[in-house]
Amino acid sequence: MSTTFVRHVPRQLFIGGSWQDAESGRTFCVDNPATGEELCQVADASPADGRRAVEAAVAAQTAWAATPPRVRSEILRRAYDLIIARTEDLALLMTLEMGKPLAEARAEVAYGAEFFRWFSEEAVRIDGGMMTAPDGRNRLLVTRQPVGPCLLITPWNFPLAMGTRKIGPAIAAGCTIVLKPAPQTPLTSLALAAILTEAGLPAGVLNIVTTTDAAGVVEPLLRGGQIRKLSFTGSTQVGRLLLAQCADTVIRTSMELGGNAPLIVFDDADLDTAVEGTMVAKMRNMGESCCAANRIYVHTSIADEFAQRLTARMAALKVGDGTQPGTDVGPLIDTVGRSKAHDLVQDAVKRGATVLTGGELPQGPGCFYPPTVLTGIAPDAAINDTEVFGPVAAIRTFETEDEAVAAANDTEFGLAAYLFTQNLDRALRVSERLESGMIGLNTGLVSNPAAPFGGIKQSGLGREGGRVGINEFLEYKYIAVPVA
């Protein structure tokens, strides 16, 4: 497998259309979570570097907003084509810096690229309207304009797709961008900047600041008065801090925050479908997804059979380096993430849970954790209220529909939820009752570029993707025109 592409990925800051070292000359290490070995060093930005990136975005905003929608559309479409053409290179890059198996990385390339294709089509459909005022005195002309320079903050778990899901609509709307990727996975974002430049994106429209000092770099930018939009994907805890920092200058925000997704299997569910759906909802990306099924509720009449089938599937998964053929489950992102998953398992066992498979820390290098199934979860176990972000399936039981719905909704989060039933009335009724922004009905996969992705309660604000995704980057302007 060739690593030529990886060796040539830029490792500097991208500001005003040029690759630059950090002002201080500092760098930080990007590690391979499968081996613990260093992949490379990347520029470590300071607050001053962040300010330069914002200044570049501000300088480019007026001209970019005036660029014809078709031009913006074609840049995104060319970038889509380039991403697809480099699927193998980008997949390997993600596997090396994040750990997911190559098969999953290839799937992310296809998924992430689709946001560019989708928003290339939405760029030319930004509309407005005109009507006559009810009193007949004015014509009411409504137009749509870009909100202005945007700060986009992306997580490490989907290095390509989280970038394209935010960059795509911003470019389509005519906004300039400062992107701060997660320090664990900066290389994919830097590769994406190179691809967009090759696709014809003008200098200053996209600027990338890689840093280990997120708080020090981000807060001054939010309080400085030049950023007009923040889009953040990450924890609810950090989201609250960012919302407070946005308040002083009333920055428009959209946030995809934490999740604690319930998955309900009713007694009339097709068990083959339910087990397969649970495997997808739980094990996609090694469970490192805000949409991952975190609390699995199974009707008591089928709980034993469901647990046996799920355990057999989980135990059969091959854990290993994501670059190796046949690997199903790669490493978790770092030792902190692995320790968190293991601590939650140990806490559950301490309180009476039974381990059906997994649950033991493996020996050797890398941040690996085995697929694990738990039953008999006590009400006071930490795993009930804590997002695992790992390959741990915790099964609970229920007797009635009301009991299942109440348990599913007993959380401050509301991003995704899943249910499995063959009863149409129940399917619609429970879907309406579940307090989540997205519902997987007889499926474990809800993410789709054509759908509005986002949550309610403390899982976030706004939506990404779908026809509404571009609205987060547009303002309405109303112009009153007197009737002659």
Q: Output mean pLDDT.
A: 97
Number of strands: 22
Main sheet attributes: strand count, strand direction, barrel closure: 7 strands, mixed
Separate helix tally: 14
Please list the strands of the largest sheet in the order they lie side by side: 14-15-16-13-12-18-19
Tell me the helix content: 25-40%
Secondary structure category = alpha/beta
Oligomer: single chain
Approximately what portion of the residues adopt beta-strand conformation?
15-25%
How large is the radius of gyration?
Answer: 23 Å
Question: Which word captures the global form?
Answer: globular
Distance between the termini: 71 Å
Low-pLDDT parts are: none
Can you describe this structure?
This protein is globular. It is built from 14 helices and 22 strands. The chain is 37% helix and 21% strand. Helix 6 links the parallel strand 7 and strand 8 (177-180). The longest helix is centred in the N-terminal third of the chain and has 21 residues, at 102-122. The model has no long low-confidence stretch (mean pLDDT 97). It has helices spanning 4-7, 47-65, 69-85, 87-98, 102-122, 161-173, 187-198, 214-223, 236-247, 271-283, 303-315, 335-350, 401-409, 424-433, and strands spanning 13-15, 18-20, 27-31, 38-43, 129-132, 138-146, 150-153, 177-180, 206-208, 229-233, 252-256, 261-265, 293-299, 354-357, 372-375, 392-398, 413-414, 416-420, 438-441, 456-457, 460-461, 474-482. With 484 residues, it is an alpha/beta fold. The strands form 6 sheets. A 7-stranded mixed sheet has the order 14-15-16-13-12-18-19, sandwiched between helices. The chain has a 6-stranded mixed sheet with strand order 9-8-7-10-11-21, sandwiched between helices. A 3-stranded antiparallel sheet has the order 5-6-22, with no helix packed on it.
